[in-house]
Amino acid sequence: MKDKLLLTGIIGTIVAAICCFTPALVILLGVVGLSSIVGYLDFVLLPILAIFLIITGYALWRRMKSR
Question: Which of 10, 26, 30, 61 has the most CB atoms around it within 10 Å of its CB?
Answer without folding.
Answer: 10
